[in-house]
# Entry
Amino acid sequence: MTRLLFFFLAAALCSAQESAADLSRQVSELRDLVLKLQTRIDDLERRSAPPALPAAREAPKEVVIAATTPAPSPPAPSAAAELWQDTTINFTVDGYYAYNFNSPIGRTNLLRAYDVSSNSFSLNQADLIIENAADASAGKHWGARLDLQFGQATQTLQGNAANEPRPEIYRNVFQAYGTWAPNTHLTVDFGKWSSSIGLEGNYSKDQINYSRSFWFDFLPFYHMGVRAAYKVNSALTLNYWLDNGTQQTEAFNGFKDELFGFALQPRKTVSWTVNYYLGQEHPDVVYYPYTSPPGLPTNQGVSFSPIVNPPKGKTHIFDSYATWTPTDRWTLAAEADDVIQRDEVNSAPFHTVGGALYARYQLTPKFALAARGEYLSDHGGLYTGVWQQLKEVTLTTEYKVAAGFIARIEWRRDVSNYPYFLTDTLNLLGKHQTTATMGVIWWFGKKTGSW
# Structure
């Protein structure tokens, strides 16, 4: 009996041990399964969550790296971009209405350079100016300029066949020249340029008055050839020209005119220019632009014949003008000219002498007053064709409507000691003419200062 009881106790103990071992195994397997499930859940959460922001302690490191990393260099500009970057393109439109109190037949104002029409809305000129200037101080040793002009002014400038054998070819090209500046002292131009003989110039916006003086109308407008300017120092510049002649894009004789002069600016407010011009303004050929006589040589289709023993008398122009701006409001200027011309080397001279005085006062930033008084003695009729003495007084008011837009109202009286000016009666000439003019000028572009 005892043995049987011991047997059952031993069997129960073995069964209990096996059950405990099996339970322990199951618990272990269940724990492993839970760990695997937790790992899978964490993985799924990481995939579905947005990117984590960098830790706060990483921010300084990120900033330091960004600050010390060099920025990428911008692309280098092309050659075409550099060319146009230094090029100025400018436009101007200049128109007027003038009334001549003589009511002249033909509505013509005599001895006027540009305001030639009376009782008519007129386009003085419309211009396009393209310039790429040389600047030797910046290492740029070449440049060029082109001025295209349209309107009444073109007829004044290049309508005279006595100067231009074929004016229609060059009529709209007021200036066209290339520049070479080998150093900061020397500048050389080749081509056609506006004459700097005389104080006044072509563009109305840069003038003290709207109408131009007798001297502007008489002295050369332009030249074609080579000119050089040598800057001795900051105050003194020497000038030399070698050209075809006065208002001669094409030469009509074999003589080359010359100019010797200087420009002095001892102070910022004072400038003085002196010019001596030596020329020979007599043609040695006769052109036939509308006919073609047989057997004559031609110049691009235009027939011409040589003049036997052409006149060789010289032209001498002595020209001097100065400008003084004593204050920001005042501008004062003066000009003196003496022109001598002979038909033959030893013949009696034609002699035209005189000058002009100018004053301008800037009353307000928008409003200015200006005046000009002038005298011209035309001995022998070199300018007018009549031996006479001319005087004129001009009063001009200017209002700056906006940047690049000004209006001028002008009263002018021209007087002669000889009956010369047109009236309302045919063949009846008067000793004076009085005009009232309103001029309007628009301009815009990158070029600053005087054109």
User: Anything to note?
Assistant: Residues 97-445 form a domain with the Porin fold (CATH 2.40.160.10). The two ends are 141 Å apart (CA to CA).
